[in-house]
Design a protein that fits this description.
By secondary structure, this protein is mainly alpha-helical. Helix content is 55%, strand content 8%.
Length: 230
Amino acid sequence: MSDRDKILDKIKKCLALSASSNEHEAEAALRQARKMMEAHGITDLDIQAAEAEERRAKSGAKSQPANWETMLASKIADAFACQVIFSGGFWNRLGEWCFIGCGASPEVAHYAFTVLHRQAKRARDEHIKTRLKRCKVATKTRRADLFSEGWVRSVAGTIAAFAGTEQQAAAIDAYMVKHYPALRSLKSRDRNDGRKLRDHEYDDYAAGHRSGKDAQLNRGVGGAEQPRSE
């Protein structure tokens, strides 16, 4: 924990005491909190943002993730009451999905994305190997995207939805304002945008939807299984 984090923690404890039913204790705690905030240049936004944190998971793309991967990250973020942003990679490094939330939510979202993304890629590779190996590279990739989109839509039902509180939402918003004030909308790569799909392409999507029903997401409760990364 950094020195600033320690100061933030002390301020939060004082603010918690300021809600005491003991009038004198509450007044002293609030005065102490404000004194520390002024001394260290800490604002109300800093205090609120300190309730949220982020966890990053590797993407399969450097700068423009495929539509299906963006769908997967977004569905997981919604399920675990997180905000998600994409951070592009540099040189030959892959980009990252950054899950921002309160409590254990970002850690669980990171775990869910890592596990499901790995399964999605494995199912995609198998579909290419068994159904698309004779296709041209561009056609193979585009049809594999349809399979992956079907897979993601199917697997969405296996992601446990955790309801976020208004306090958590405010903390996440404050964190976003403080740490990512210049965000832009992400344009994901949809290789099938504007195309009229043929029967065999609908078959790719349907195959992905069927495959997604086999996806597994085991999140431990009470220490049964801990989040992990590749």
